[in-house]
Amino acid sequence: MHRIKQGDEVIVTAGKDKGRRGSVIKVLDNDRVMVESINMVKKHTKPNPMQGLEGGIVEKEMPMHISNVMLFNPAINKGDRVGFKVLEDGKKVRYFKSNGEVVDV
């Protein structure tokens, strides 16, 4: 189980987009995450008529390290650390360290 999952609302803690919020699009194997409209770069692409691609400059998201994002806690409107605990029924859940609130039920 990972601390950050696909679909989570995160806040960026380091880098050029520090302080911005977004939703996680994808969690990659090498401890990297892709967040929507964060870490945008301009990619120069060649046209490919076989696939119907036009050439030009395309803006796209690039992965960033998972240590540069924190899970957003709506109760305090800030990023928060995440821990794990096991409930009475044996289910393992994530919770916010600041207020002990369970992230996913």
What do you see in this structure?
With 105 residues, this protein is mainly β. It has a domain at 9-74: SH3 type barrels. Helices cover 0% and strands 45% of the residues. It is built from no helices and ten strands. It has a six-stranded antiparallel sheet, with no helix packed on it. Strands 4-5 form a two-stranded antiparallel sheet. It starts with 8 loop residues before the first strand and ends in a 9-residue tail after the last strand.
CATH class of the domain at 9-74: Mainly Beta
Radius of gyration: 17 Å
Question: What is the chain-wise order of helices and strands?
Answer: EEEEEEEEEE
Straight-line N-to-C gap: 14 Å
Major sheet description: 6 strands, antiparallel
Q: What is the residue-averaged pLDDT?
A: 95
- Shape field: elongated
Structural class: mainly beta
In which range does the helix fraction lie?
under 10%
The order of strands across the largest sheet is: 6-3-2-1-7-8
The percentage of residues in β strands lies in 35-45%
Looking at the structure, the CATH topology of the domain at 9-74 is SH3 type barrels
Brief overview:
This protein has 105 residues and is an all-beta fold. It is built from no helices and ten strands.
Topology, element by element:
Layout: E1 9-12, E2 21-27, E3 32-35, E4 40-45, E5 56-61, E6 64-65, E7 69-73, E8 78-80, E9 82-86, E10 92-96
Antiparallel strand pairs: 1-2, 1-7, 2-3, 3-6, 4-5, 7-8, 9-10
